[in-house]
Design a protein that fits this description.
alpha+beta; 6 strands; six-stranded antiparallel beta sheet; 46% helix
């Protein structure tokens, strides 16, 4: 039967959890937790067996941990949406903030124009072509001279870096939205 995921250790079937080997990580999943519980049950002292309430308490703790992880992920997404919303609210307004290196944003913009793909997805030939674009060369030179300097101007657009953090585009310069000291 194709499509059934049966864990070879526990013999449990679960359609939502993939029992295939995972890349090594430092997080325990639900299947790992069940393997631990089963190993505890197999290796417990038969004269002093562990109480079922102890197992239930462990499962409840594990479920609480999973729920906390889900809440943390949700908060991270909410923070990203809030930051993007705050940045887009500044479009068309005059702001003052500190300039940051625009090279990654310009590279990505040029890559999307020329190859319809983000810079990270380009092959080496395409990356060289993007690097030779006059806009990228200008951004590199500008970053060497002006990064960290205060810029005042009208926000043209919002650019989002590979890290997911939005920045403001002002007259070809990228301003860190967290350094904005004034909005008109």
């Amino acid at each position: 039967m194709a499509g059934l995921n049966i864990d070879p250790v526990t013999g449990l079937q679960n359609a939502s959890i993939d029992a295939r080997p995972k890349t090594p990580g430092n997080e325990l999943g639900q299947v790992d937790f069940m393997k631990l519980i089963i190993a505890q049950m197999k290796n417990q002292n038969p004269l002093e067996p562990q109480k079922d309430t102890d197992f239930m308490a462990q499962m409840a703790q594990f479920e609480a941990l999973n729920q906390m992880k889900a809440v943390a992920e949700g908060m991270k997404v909410l923070q990203g949406v809030t930051e993007l919303s705050s940045a887009t609210a500044m479009i068309g307004r005059t702001v003052t903030g500190k300039q940051v290196d625009a090279t990654p944003a310009v590279r990505d913009m040029v890559a999307r124009e020329k190859f319809s793909a983000p810079y990270e997805k380009l092959d080496s030939r395409q990356r060289v072509e993007v690097g030779n674009d006059p806009r990228v060369k200008s951004a590199i030179a500008d970053a060497l001279d002006n990064a960290g300097k205060e810029v005042t101007g009208k926000v043209d657009k919002v650019v989002v870096g590979a890290d997911g953090i939005p920045s403001l585009w002002i007259n070809g310069k990228v301003v860190d939205m967290f350094t904005v000291s004034g909005v008109v």
